[in-house]
Amino acid sequence: MKPCLYFSVYLHFLILSAMSLQAVFFDVDGTLANTEKDGHRVAFNKAFTELKLNWQWDAAIYGELLKIAGGKERLRHFIETRLNEEVTKYDVIEIHKVKTRHYTELLKTGAIPLRKGIHRLLKELKSAGVRMAIVTTTTPANVEALLEGTLNHDSESFFEFIAAGDIVPHKKPAPDIYQYALDQARLNAGDCIAIEDSDNGIRAAEGAGLKTVITVNDYTKTHDFSKADLVVSDAGEPGEPFTVLSGNPFNCSMLDFNLLQKISQT
Ligand code: XBP
Ligand code: MG
């Protein structure tokens, strides 16, 4: 090979390795943990009972209501489209506050664990020097309760910041919360990867220009993930490989630094 070709190959390698993965942004509900059916839904129902509202959301109804991101927004959608009533008839903020109290009490007990492979992945990315943050629609107190119930006080050592809930004007699927996180981290979208579970999530991440890895769950496995870089059953563990639903796993069998690095360089 001519020397100039050697140099251009070496330069290409340098550029690629320089474009290393800087940060991973983690969604919470359905991604860090399967919190929706046995967490949020249960807390909503407890709030309805406490406030003597004769509403109860079963798993199927809740799955349909989940297309609306945000608990307050979901409540308003339910009142308008299922009850066909005026939202102003109810104090949605108060109902949501009671729900959040029930939810945080439940999560602090550790009732809902992190999903398979998540704790391993967090530790691995931390060892590799990859920055991490949380990017979620849920209420910040809910995130703290999940982290307290699963990681104790270890969580501060993983996540630089928590971008959550009403901190932005428009929730997922709008890209606002991911754009906010990029601004907070002072990073470009190309330096980061989002890990999500739902169509609202991937639309938000892709809308902010991030590559996205999806770990599906029962509520989201039929969603449209055609724009995802990789769709898998879960993060996987050594000896417990993930199932690849679409995308290139680069011969890997679980989400790890090596795989995410390769995806970030595509
Ligand atoms: C999922 C959501 C949240 C939760 C409920 O968030 O849409 O609204 O369902 O939490 P993500 P709140 O997948 O982005 O983590 O009631 O606090 O909104
Ligand atoms: Mg989610």
Which tags fit this structure?
binds magnesium ion, alpha/beta, 266 residues, 43% helix, binds xylulose-1,5-bisphosphate
How many helical stretches? 10
Q: Please indicate the percent range of residues in DSSP E strands (runs of 2 or more).
A: 5-15%
- Whole-Å distance between the termini? 26 Å
The shape, in one word, is elongated
Bound molecules: xylulose-1,5-bisphosphate, magnesium ion
Q: Summarize this, please?
A:
The chain is of the alpha/beta class and 266 residues long. Helices cover 43% and strands 11% of the residues.
Account of the protein in words:
There is one protein chain. The protein is an alpha/beta fold. It has 10 helices and 7 strands. It has helices at residues 3-18, 36-50, 59-65, 71-81, 92-108, 118-127, 140-151, 176-185, 199-207, 257-264, and strands spanning 23-26, 131-136, 162-164, 192-196, 211-215, 230-232, 244-247. A 7-stranded mixed sheet has the order 3-2-1-4-5-6-7, with helices on both faces. Helix 5 runs parallel beside helix 7. The longest helix has 17 residues, at 92-108. The model has no long low-confidence stretch (mean pLDDT 94). The structure holds xylulose-1,5-bisphosphate and magnesium ion (MG). Residues 27-30, 36, 40, 69-71, 136-139, 142, 172, 198, 201 line the site of xylulose-1,5-bisphosphate. Xylulose-1,5-bisphosphate binds at residues 27-30, 36, 40, 69-71, 136-139, 142, 172, 198, 201.
